[in-house]
Amino acid sequence: MASLQKAIDQATKAIEEDINKNYTEALKLYESAVEYFLLAMKYEVSNERSKDSAKKKMEAKMEAAIVAEKPNVRWDDVAGLEGAKTALKEAVILPIKFPHMFTGKRQTWRGILLFGPPGTDEVDSLCGSRSEQESESARRIKTEFLVQMHGVGNQNDGVLVLGATNIPWVLDAAIRRRFEKRIYIPLPGEHARTFMFKLNLGDTSHSLTEDDFRYIGSKTEGYSGADISIVVRDALMQPVRKVQTATHFKYSRGPSREDPNIFRDDLLTPCSPGDHGAMEMTWEQVRGEELLEPVVSMREMMLSLADSKPSVNDHDLDKLRKFTEDFGLEG
């Protein structure tokens, strides 16, 4: 039963990598676990009772890889992409609300593929083109994936397979056909980029105006949602850097840490040495409850933007447009 134990160990490691979002390494470990499990079933387990016991142990491990959580993302949180949203509503929400509409020849979509620039995920790591170099477990996984998506001999009614990739051209042709709807997720337009900057800032204190948001939205053509997220994250760190490098602080009025509805006049915020009331000190001399961190300003946002570059090049976009012409729909 050595192979079975190795299978369980590999599956345990795979789950850990999955949780840590190291998906490529997790996939390798899952494949290794399947290989060891198949070896155990073929050569080390002789009777049906032992096989059932081994299967239950392996199933328990594999079930831990299933994510069951309710997301708190609303349709309004997604900027643009009306085509993609319509397809998902058609495939998921309408069949649940009006099941009588989807009977007989009118069936729901079984598979939807979202593809676009980097940041659109990596189903290709599981569903790439088959080759002689891939392992036996990878071939078995791919074959089973095809069977399950096709629904042969399975009760898969109401199951939607939603995949996403930024390199759709490497998908296995048979798997690509199983994704009946293939929707291109383009780079966000100016209005969507403006919305994304607001969304990523969230409720963090800032001094940006509507005109500021529109300006940075207009200056970020070619940026993906992931690129914008990185710009905002860096801008959010600018006040932290200001606190860390400050040589002078002054008293300022701001909300209390204990109760934001109560304002205090004895909070300390970083300032220039020439400011009225400036005191020479460093952040190490400021107590946690006394610090009033600077708000994110347009200056910080532009500094972060100046240090960033879009991650998507024209060559990748051309390949995505070509794939859309051949196989997809506009999102």
Automatic annotation (TrEMBL):
Residues of the MIT domain: 2-79
Coarse class of the protein's main subcellular location: membrane
GO MF, one example: ATP binding
Entry GO CC: membrane
Localization terms from the record: Membrane
A single BP term in Gene Ontology: endosomal transport
Pfam family of the protein (one): AAA_lid_3
UniProt keywords, alphabetically: ATP-binding, Membrane, Nucleotide-binding
Domain of life, per lineage: Eukaryota
UniProt xrefs under InterPro entries: AAA_lid_3, ATPase_AAA_core, ATPase_AAA_CS, MIT_dom, MIT_dom_sf, MT-severing_AAA_ATPase, P-loop_NTPase, Spast_Vps4_C
UniProt keyword Nucleus, yes or no: no
Similarity annotation: Belongs to the AAA ATPase family.
PANTHER family: AAA DOMAIN-CONTAINING, VACUOLAR PROTEIN SORTING-ASSOCIATED PROTEIN 4B
Protein known as: MIT domain-containing protein
